[in-house]
Amino acid sequence: MGELARVVVIGAASIDTKGRARGELIPATSNPGQIRVSAGGVGRNIAENLGRLGVPTLLLSAVGDDEAGRHILEVTAAGGVDVSQVIVSHSRSAAYLAVLDEKGAMRLSIDDMAIMEEVTPRYIYDRRRFIRGAKMVVIDANLSPAAIVSALRLATKAGVPVCADPVSVALAPRLKDHLSCLSIVTPNAQEAQVLSETPVRDRFQAIAAAQKLVSLGVEVAIITLAEEGLCYVTSQEMGHVPAMECEVVDATGAGDALTAGVVYGLVNDFPISEAVRLGVSAATLTLTCVDTVCPDLSLERLYDRLVI
Length: 308
What we know:
Elements: E1 7-10, E2 14-21, E3 33-40, H1 42-52, E4 57-60, E5 62-64, H2 67-78, E6 81-82, E7 87-89, E8 94-100, E9 106-112, H3 121-126, H4 128-132, E10 136-140, H5 145-158, E11 162-165, E12 184-185, H6 189-196, H7 203-215, E13 220-224, E14 230-233, E15 238-241, H8 254-267, H9 272-287, H10 299-305
Parallel strand pairs: 1-4, 1-10, 2-8, 4-6, 5-7, 10-11, 11-12, 12-13
Antiparallel strand pairs: 2-3, 8-9, 13-14, 14-15
């Protein structure tokens, strides 16, 4: 499938361990709750969501030659993603540990993504034929600064649009010097604040920050605002899409599902106003699911949830 991949995703693949408190979180002591383990990693999550939506998707990443790595590859392939080019390394697989409050919102997380150093500029360059043949490339900021440059250079040269997920406040600065190379960027409010250097505390500030990102060269700036939905800006239009009412089970992966929904819409030539609604629909389904990627995500379910 690699030769035909419509989307090439370059980013992290990890094992997620998530603990959700049963009651109010009390720091510095043990909190009763539930602990679940699932495959994760921003790039991998986006790829699996796309695979489940029927988009031929190739993942470029690295996993360890260990039980975790085998599980990551198995789950990702079962989601319809081509994992034939993923590095299987002697390093240990990436891991992500999250503590969720009783409402399913992430209160604290730690990631161990050292293996991502193995996704080198050379590794990406050696797979340039996949990038050249893609309709879109998606990167996450877990990539090293040098790998980000390599991916952007190859995609730009091939005329392939790039969507970037900033991942976290700590990693968002890796994208700051490259905004003019990005077709789409999907930060949350905190990440948008880092990228735009403007405060983002409500949807009006989010629109202003998105406008700033567009003025810096981004074609589509989408800022996610959790229960306030999202704001989007292009050089032609701007808008706000409210969040959908739902029972939040686990917020992990909702942003990755949103990015995948938007990418699905754009590679299928939907207008941006419709693509962002597909993104909100995908995020909502993920919020109601205990897994980082909703295993029964499908186009039918996406359209059932769609806000017109």
